[in-house]
Amino acid sequence: GGGLGILFAFWGTQPLSGLVPEDLRNVIRLTVDGRVLAFTALASVLAAIAFGLTPALQGSRFALTEALREGGQSSTPGRHGAQRILVVAESALAVVLLVSAGLLLKSFLRLTEADEGFDPTRVVTLNLSLPAARYSNPAERNRFVERMLEGVSALPGVRSASAVTRLPLGGGESRRGIEIEGRPARPGDNPGVLYSVASPGYFGTLGIPLLRGRDFTSRDDAGAPGVFIINQAMARAYWPGTDPVGKRMRFDDATPWSEVVGVAGDTRQQDLAEPAPPMFYAPYAQDSWPSLTVAIRAAGDPGALENEAERAIQAVDKDQAVYDVRTMSEVIENSVSPRRFYVLLLGIFAALALGLAAIGIYGVMAYSFAQRTHEIGIRLAVGAQHGDVLRLVLGEGARLALGGLAIGLVGALGLTRLLSSLLFGVSASDPLTYASVAVVLVLVALIACYVPARRALRVDPMVALRYE
User: Fold this and answer.
1) What pLDDT is stored for residue 339 in this prediction?
2) If you ran DSSP here, which 8-state letter would residue 265 be given?
């Protein structure tokens, strides 16, 4: 069994490895190495000893006189307590895993329906890193970005193009301490606030609504007074009940005061499952960075613009490399890929546990009723109908499944509390998930009992009685 399991592992790890998210591949490596082989060998030997020694010890204590007194009659249902306990335990474990997988799946589906705060359709992104040797000062970086965006915006099929340093759900973050005009700063008052730098037209390109005030313009250059745009979460946190447009703030390192000229809609920045945090933006011309992302909204298929946009960028600087080209839909998919992988992995384990529970129920029922052939023959001989025998078999299997279900549901209620931090829009005690798992387990148990039941129905009373 261990050897066969190793073969399945060799076959299964290759397709499963392809599903591991890129940012987890350095952490999760699905390979069958020496440690896996040693563990499998040890587990197989221990299982053989544990589950072979118990019936061997029971057999060594077998009372010969009792067996002769029974006259060859088969055992009764109470003789298989150990097997039934194992089946109940398998069913309980399957319930816990199925509930956990069901909650995570439902949470993942809710997560994919969450409002990102922007419109990802027909948007493609390209990442740039300006070399320090050629772009050592802000003026050179500003000139490159201005010319680059002009070239990309002029491409056929491009509705708008802009640059930003921190793309929503793109990974990474920048924080700056701030000071609000008219509010004396005290130690601990200004923890770092999420901060990004964007070019004019960024909010329109990503479909982020501008709720109040204005967008950045070409006039917001290095020689103009400093300006900021804040998101709605920051407006609520720092200017509750008032209009922040026209108010002034600055970085906490005593830089000049900058005016808040607009309030943008909230966007999920780090994780779709987390509410939008307070955040503010500065114009790229006033705080240029060497690393940035170019966002392009297309009129049609955004993938068709990838090569054209790269050529437009290299027309400005032929040596400028472009990397990590993705649509915004792919950016969102990548942000939830770890959760998708965990749901898939837990789902596989839950399916295996359910399969083991079904095999266990089938095995116990098949063995039990093979031993009770004589009893079933007598029942049929004295007038029992096929429906009575069917209810007998299915009833015993259902009792095993219900015993495991009761224990599993109690265990799941306790253990799924640990999953609460991973759930989004779903309660850890979601009744629909628990009810669905209960129905699935009972149906699987009845299906597992069907073959023994059919076999019991085919018992010939005369043949069964001949065993007496």
Assistant:
1) 85
2) P
